[in-house]
Fold this sequence. Notes:
By secondary structure, the protein is an all-beta fold. The chain has strands at residues 4-7, 10-12, 18-24, 33-39, 46-51, 57-59, 67-72, 77-82, 91-99, 102-105, 109-113. Strand 7 and strand 8 form a beta hairpin. The radius of gyration is 13 Å and the shape is globular. The model has no long low-confidence stretch (mean pLDDT 94).
Amino acid sequence: QVQVVESGGGLVQPGGSLRLSCAASGSIFVTYAMYWYRQAPGKQRQFIAHITSDGTTNYDDSVKGRFTISRDNVKNTVYLQMNSLKPEDTAVYYCKLGRTGANYWGQGTQVTVSS
Length: 115
């Protein structure tokens, strides 16, 4: 089975930046779209960003203009660059590989934005 592992989370002050990474094993990486979700305490998991196998991107309005999703198909890795972070961005961030009939989730990485 494909393994998906997020990293790069941590504590940052409002206005700061973090870059999350999601590394996936397996040679099928290039056939999947990649997604980032987040889940804050007491709230439902929320879609935040998506990138197709050919590089087309889509963002939730709450992060548009601040976050950038990208992928490196050679390294089997997807990234989320997060700038101008706000306290409301605090959540566990999850990576997903997805296509029709097949989905693989990572375990999540904590991002805390606080002064």
